[in-house]
Write a structure and sequence with these properties.
- Helix 2 (38-76) packs antiparallel against helix 3.
- By secondary structure, the chain is mostly helical.
- It is globular, with a radius of gyration of 23 Å.
- It has helices at 9-23, 38-76, 88-108, 113-116, 121-134, 141-159, 170-177, 180-201, 208-238, 246-272, 275-296.
- The termini are far apart.
- It contains eleven helices and no strands.
């Protein structure tokens, strides 16, 4: 059979198929530039690594939450219940949670907050499935609808997240953290936290919304500090040493303190309410607070002409230089 004429419809169709083939082959050479092409993969491989770490971390967290819930159920059926922190099973869940959070911690060093935070829906779905299979909790039609909507929202958030290869220096963090927008955000958050804590501690109101809002407010500080710490560690490994700056240790202390109080409040919520209720609500609150916090701080960093955020700050200065004007060497 004769080959189609170069200018005919057969040639156009063949060219379109070739382009589609290149777009769906990571390793193929050519002009393909689609969402699964080699060029797309090369541009986003650092972000993809962060996404993979976040997915694995959230799967481990979903397992840990159900292990801790199971330990609470066991303790509740004992004649003389012991404190939960004396349970080996509970500590096993806590260790798994630490492992999962370590994966999330590392993920923030490779991708923006607005890309990593929504992936918490993995832990929502995983927790719901595990609680049904092993804890014999009920899964309603509304739960399935909620999981579907969570995945749809995650897709939209991840798909339209800023495609910026962020490299966060200590001086960049210092610059943005003294801005009036971030200061107003922190003051408002502290005010809301104190009001809710008053109702929780003094009035004894332990509604799930109050508990998980407290968790979400702490989570916003955790996300900011984790992004700052992991970003500075990544910057130190790939470029210039940042661990000599005091801001690194301030962020590290904030990260640890906020994580500890988060776990305490989240543990209280899982004791009072089912995992199938706590995990989805916590995911919504956490994702909202994380995205708002990210937009007020480190996700505001704009890339330079090379697509990286190493470059200049809004005041025109170099973000990799110390205030004296000399670059910080390793």
């Amino acid at each position: 059979m004769a080959a189609p004429a170069p200018g005919g419809p057969g040639a156009a169709a063949s060219a379109a198929l070739d382009e589609l083939s290149r777009n769906f082959t990571y390793w193929a050479l050519g002009a393909g530039n689609g969402s699964l092409s080699g060029a797309w993969y090369r541009r986003n491989q650092i972000h993809l690594f962060g996404v993979l770490l976040a997915i694995l971390g959230n799967l481990v967290i979903s397992i840990s939450l159900n292990i801790q819930k199971y330990s609470h159920l066991q303790l509740a059926h004992q004649e003389r219940p012991r404190p939960y922190f004396k349970s080996v099973l509970w500590w096993g869940g806590a260790i798994l949670m630490a492992v999962g959070e370590t994966g999330n911690f590392a993920a923030y060093g490779f991708a923006p907050i607005t890309l990593i935070a929504p992936l918490g829906c993995i832990s929502v779905t995983g927790s719901a499935i595990i609680s049904v299979l092993f804890l014999k909790e009920n899964l309603r039609a509304s739960d399935l609808l909620g999981m579907t909507l969570a995945f749809a929202g995650t897709y939209l958030l991840v798909n339209f997240a800023p495609n910026i290869a962020q490299a966060i220096s200590a001086r960049t963090i210092q610059y943005y953290f003294v801005g009036w927008q971030f200061m107003m955000y922190v003051i408002l958050e502290i005010l809301i936290f104190c009001i809710l804590l008053y109702f929780y501690k003094r009035r004894g109101i332990k509604h799930i919304v109050i508990l998980l809002t407290l968790v979400a407010l702490l989570a916003s500080l955790t996300v900011i500090s984790v992004k700052a710490v992991s970003g500075m560690i990544t910057f130190s490994v790939m470029d210039k040493m940042q661990l000599t700056y005091p801001i690194f240790y301030i962020m590290f202390i904030i990260m640890i303190a906020s994580c500890v109080f988060q776990v305490k409040l989240l543990n209280q919520a899982t004791k009072l309410y089912s995992t199938a209720t706590v995990v989805p609500v916590n995911h919504i609150f956490f994702t909202t607070s994380a995205i708002i916090a990210g937009k007020q701080t480190l996700d505001k960093i704009q890339p330079d002409s090379n697509g990286l955020s190493y470059g200049t700050l809004p005041d025109g200065s170099d973000s990799t230089k110390s205030p004296s004007g000399e670059k910080k060497e390793v």
